[in-house]
Amino acid sequence: MHFDYRSLLFYCSQLLSCSRIGPKLGACCVLWFVLFCAEPDSAKVGQLLPQPPTITHQSPKDYIIDPRENIVIHCEAKGNPHPSFSWTRNGTHFDVEKDHKVITRSNSGTLVIDISEEKAEAYEGVYQCMARNEHGTAVSNNIVIRQSKSPLWSKERNEPITVQVGVSLILHCRPPAGLPPPIIFWMDNNFQRLPQNSRVSQALNGDLYFSNVLAEDTRNDYICYARFPHTQTIQQKQPITVNVLNDRPAGERKPSFMYPSGDSSTVSVLRGETLELECFADGLPTPEISWTKANGDLPNDRFSFHNFQKTLKITEVMEADGGDYHCLARNRLGNAQHIITVVVKAAPFWISAPRNLVLAPKEMGMLICHVGGNPKPTITWLVNGVPIENSHKDPSRKIEDNTIILSDVQTGSSAVYQCNASNEFGYLLANAFVNVLAEPPRVLTPPNYVYQVISNRQAMLDCASFGSPIPKITWFKDGQTAIVNGDSYILHENGTLQINVAQPLNSGKYTCVATNSLGNRENHVYLEVKEPTRILKQPEYKKVQRSSKAVFECKVKHDPTLIPTMTWLKDNGELPDDERFVVDSDSLTINDVTQEDEGTYTCIMNTTLDQDSASATLTVVERPDPPRDLELTDQKERSVQLTWTPGDEHNSPVQSFLIQYEDSLHEQDVWNNMTEVPGTSTTAHLDLSPYVYYSFRVLALNDVGLSEASIPSNQYRTNPASPDENPSDVEGTGTEPDNMVISWNEMTGLQSNGPGLQYKVSWRQKDTDEDWMSIIVANVSEYVVTGTPTFVPYEVTVQAINDYGSGPKPEVVLGYSGEDRPTMAPESVKVLVQNSTVAEVHWEPIPPSTVKGKMLGYKVSYWKEKSLQKEDSKPEKPQELTFSGNETEGRLPDLQPYSQYSINVRAFNGKGDGPPSTNQKFETPEGVPGPPTFLRITNPNLESFTVEWGPPVDDNGRITGYILKYQPINNTEELKEMTLLANETSVILENLKYSTRYKFYLNAMTIKGSGPIVTTAITIMDEALIRQPAACMSPRPWPTIHYVNFSLEEDHAILNWEYTGDENNVYVEYMLDNSKEAWKREAVNGSRTYQLKSLKAGMTYRVRVVAKDHGDATVHSTEELLIAVPAMTSRQVDIATQGWFIGLMCAIALLILVLLIVCFIKRNKGGKYPVKEKEEAHQDPEIQPMKEDDGTFGEYSDTEDHKPLKGSRTPSNGTVKKDDSDDSLVDYGEGGDGQFNEDGSFIGQYSGKKEKDTAEGNESSEAPSPVNAMNSFV
Fold first, then answer.
1. How far is CA 876 from the centre of its chain?
2. How far apart are CA 917 and CA 920, in angstroms?
3. Rg (CA), the chain
4. Is residue 643 a contact partner of residue 633, using CB atoms and an 8 Å limit?
5. CA-to-CA separations, 266 to 310, 341, 342, 1122, 1223, in angstroms, rounded
């Protein structure tokens, strides 16, 4: 079995914690580590070290055997050399070789005694085993062998027992003494256990106690049984007959004790055993038993009551359990008490057993035998199984009571010491060896072991060592100064280096050096400190609806050098094996969620060093189940109580219940909402209307939605009655000047309260003495009153009537008859002009009698008739402004300056507009003009250029002139200003600075001021050109490019154009079509033809030719050309017509012919083919040639050279590569495959393709083709 090294080393390091046992005993611990805890290579060290014997397994001291089986007495021991074994029996040597029935197991001291033909009693006795080698002798305990016994019950005659009802009774069992003691129980003739209770119960010795007998206790089959566990036999006592008489029943009495007798008794018990105290009381009624301890409480967790409180049981008895225990028996007539004094004795027990010692020469050590017991045990020492006083004298040994002190030990003084502690209750025997060794240091921790630990955790670097004397351990990091105890490091006495809080800077190489007087040994280990695993985003609580999807996210950060494993659990178990559960690298998705998916989901990220986990709960919600069990109670004429039972909420609490009703009398199968109650209610008081056939149903609402409706309740009918209400929304409005329409909302069947619903409509003119006019109508929602005056107020009522009476007194509503249009136009219309764009209008209101309805306001219409500047202007479409109520003035915005307007005003009401007033005219004054329509520079040359502009579209008056301003850009010079006449639209500017960029500003003027400014800019030509001779001073043309065309070649485009201007400032710019990148530029350098290279096949480019000035500003640009580069070049070369190709083919043909000749020459000479040599070199079983006779593989021999190879082809050197030439023989040879094996050879090397399809295995009679001959040439 292989154990994890670190777990094993941790356990064994506890053995090596020598600080617990003192420095002189540390070597013993190290030896135990070597023998039991080291890795296999290190364990070999322990196998080479001498060791005295150690008993590892032995039979128990008291060994009860089954006479039906062989006797096996165990004695196992270890040591180096392996110990031999001997036995004593009853204190004398037991020669096992002389008894053929006794066998000793191989490499063991265990005895197997065959008693199949011998009585077991012959081998009873006291046995002791001794294991010895040259370094000492270890002895076992005294093993007492006894045969188990199950004797028969003694012959006896049981007389019937006759007692009166109510008296106490004891049925004695008195079982035979067995080995071990039997288990007692009482049964009847039918092998049924006799019932026991607080009145009848069994004592520990098997007797059956009756506190008082009853008539039903009469029976003739009280049988006591004894079961002997070793032999699995059951012995039966003769049945006992009990007759219970009732002629003189015993009266009631207070308790008294049947057992134990008297007021007190004493019980002795050994420490560590189980104490059982019992009390049986006589009394009528049956007494109740209770227990207390004098001067203390019963021991917690170790006491219990049995047998109906009659037995007190205390396990693992301690000295403190001694004392007086009170047994109290009580009934209603009184009580009785018995005191049991418990005396605790103790067989010898270990406080500190002697430990093995490994000492170096000249060292000292102690063997301590510390035991307890009551009475105090006697301690005796033996050495190698001989009483120490009878052994040879050793001056280095001194005995002081329970301690042996060894000093200045010498090589060869190894021995096994025995400590025997005994008193009257037993004994203890312990072996402890003293092994004197002189060994140089050995480091047992594997070399170059890599420890990995998570940052901020504890790191333990082991340096398990062995040596005698005990080596001293020193640690170094990265070959630097020795590590000492401090805040960061702790050096344990067993050699382990502890780093309390490991940090990345602690990573590195550590060296431990073990040193003693005989030498030193070092070992290297490595520490890697890793980042901790952390869940950055934990899964969150999810509440999802059934059949939807739930996604739990679990994003994790971990050390990149550790391999993570993500595991998902559901309720701390595995996820269901269901394809609905999809686990990704950082999430868990549950599709089509069901109710069974509810639970807690945990994501666990494991690495080899640590883990982190997080959990979240999934709750599946659904619409609630419909309520059920609807019931109508407290039924009255106008109300009823509705109760129901809620359905399942499905994890989402019900917020409310919606109660609906159906009126099957008026609207069958139509359900109306009636009321809503909180989700905690299960009842509702419902107010009802007369003359309705009600059915009710309930719906439950939670966060998910409404449940299905419940099953409807039983129908509940209410009696008819007169209406409780009148129609609502009663109005009186006129639709014509001579009528009034009285309207209302029709009442429903539920509101009618009975059959024969009608409406009593009444009206009269307000503020008059007229009587009410009335009419009764049915099945309508309005009535038209005709012949009314125009727009006068009326009082209106509508009352509900049915066959059972009238509704309540109706409310009076104010209505009006119909309106007519106003009959008069406003008068005194005046316009006050505020400025060139705003005017105010005023008017007189019309008399109320002419309104003919509800006055809503006035409408002002105005429009521009003409411009006062332009002769041919036309009237514009009128604009309209509305002023509500009785306003008599308004503001007219956004007027055009220097224009003539017309205006009129009219009143309007709900019926429409009245007549307009007479049109009034008014004029607006002049305003500032609009911007000039354009500003541009024309006719540029070396001496001058022209500035042109267009008049404003909106002159807004008479133009009085223009102001032109200009100045150099990025210059501090003041603006130069020119005032121009109104009829001017251009000006010539001269004497400007050359190579300077100017900006121009222009605006128009009227008498009201200047209008908005327009701007432009231009650069003046280089003044150096004007210094040329007069013959060259002709006006220089502005740069222009025209007649641009292009043609496409294989990998470039050729552009051609015509150009006038500076030759050195012309560029070709291009970019990919639909690209957002900047234009790429290439200089032309005076040419009118340019090759544009680096164009990609299959792409479309935008291309233009531009001219730039010295400031890199564009002064001219052609229109963009779209150049589509084809995916393949337009011209293909026919390879067959190329001279180089024809020459290559001729060379190849000549070479093939030469190779063919050489091949035939070598075949005729015989010998092995090179392919044969290649087969011998590679020994590839898959390519060995096959013999012709039996199909097995063999070699090509000289005798087979005359046979042609079956279509096989052999390459010249086995390394032909297609990459060497695009025109290889594979491309032009006959039938060549050109396929390669993994080693680069042709697949067809040994089984090439035949020129003609032939049956497999037939030989080819044709001569090899030139290609085959080529492939066979060496």
1. 74
2. 9
3. 62
4. yes
5. 17, 5, 6, 123, 118
Of 825, 992, 820, the closest CA to residue 919 belongs to: 825
Tell me: pLDDT of 1029 over 80. no
Amino acid identity, residue 209? Y
Element (H, E) at 1103: strand 1100-1108
* Strand residues in 1109-1214 grouped as ranges (E): 1114-1117, 1121-1124
Rounded-to-10 torsion of CA 1092, 1095, 1099, 1101: -30
**Summary mean pLDDT of the chain:** 83
Q: How many CA atoms lie within 13 A of 376 on its CB side?
A: 3
pTM of the model: 0.46
**Does the N-terminal peptide bond of residue 727 adopt cis geometry, omega within 30 degrees of 0?**
no
Residue type, 1155: L
What pLDDT, on the 0 to 100 scale, is given for residue 8? 37
pLDDT band at 758 (very low <50, low <70, confident <90, very high): very high
Lowest mean pLDDT among 2-11, 270-279, 791-800: 2-11
Q: What DSSP character marks residue 35?
A: I
Residue 670 burial (CB count, 10 A): 11
Measured CA to CA in angstroms, residue 429 lies from 253, 349, 418, 901 at distances of: 57, 10, 7, 136
- Report whether 722 contacts 807 (CB < 8 A): yes
In terms of Cα–Cα distance, which of 270, 305, 262, 433 is closest to 357?
433
**pLDDT value, residue 116:** 84
For the stretch 1115-1160, pLDDT in tens is 777 878 888 877 654 444 456 666 778 888 888 998 999 988 888 8
Q: Are 809 and 725 in contact (CB under 8 A)?
A: no
Report pLDDT digits (tens) over 1104-1127: 888 876 667 777 778 788 888 776
Residue 572, sorted as left (phi over 0), alpha (psi -120 to 50) or beta, turns out to be left
What gap in Å lies between CA 553 and CA 404, rounded to an integer? 69
Model confidence over 853-896: pLDDT tens digits? Answer: 999 999 999 999 888 887 766 788 899 999 998 899 999 998 98
Q: Which residues pair with 482 in a beta bridge?
A: 476
Query: Is residue 803 within 8 Å of 756, Cβ to Cβ?
Result: yes
Q: To 5 degrees, how large is the angle CA 474–CA 478–CA 484?
A: 35
Task: Report the distance separating Cα 542 and Cα 601, nearest Å.
Answer: 10
**CA 1014, CA 964: separation in Å to the nearest integer?**
10
282-300 pLDDT, tens per residue?
A: 999 999 999 999 988 999 8
List the end-to-end C-alpha distance of the chain, in Å, as a whole number.
Answer: 60
pLDDT at 1 over 60: no
Tokens for 954, please give them. Answer: 């909106």
Long-range contacts of 1030-1036 (CB under 8 A, 24+ apart): 1033/942, 1035/941, 1035/942, 1035/943, 1036/941, 1036/942
Within 41-124, strands assigned E span 51-58, 62-65, 71-73, 75-80, 84-89, 92-94, 102-104, 111-113
| Closest C-alpha among 641, 527, 468 to residue 25 | 468
DSSP 482: B
Q: Cβ distance 288 to 330 under 8 Å?
A: yes
pLDDT at 1233: 41
* Distance between CA atoms of residues 1009 and 751, nearest Å: 77
For 1244, what's the count of Cα atoms within 13 Å in the CB-facing half-sphere?
18
Identity (one letter) of the amino acid at 611? Answer: Q
* Residue in the block written with tokens 């092998």: 191
Considering Cα of 726, then 728, then 734, then 735, what sign does the dihedral take?
negative
Our CA dihedral for 667, 671, 675, 681, rounded to 10 degrees, sits at 140
CA 680 to chain centre: 37
Coil, helix or strand at residue 598: coil
Q: What is the rounded CA–CA span in Å between residue 389 and residue 396?
A: 15
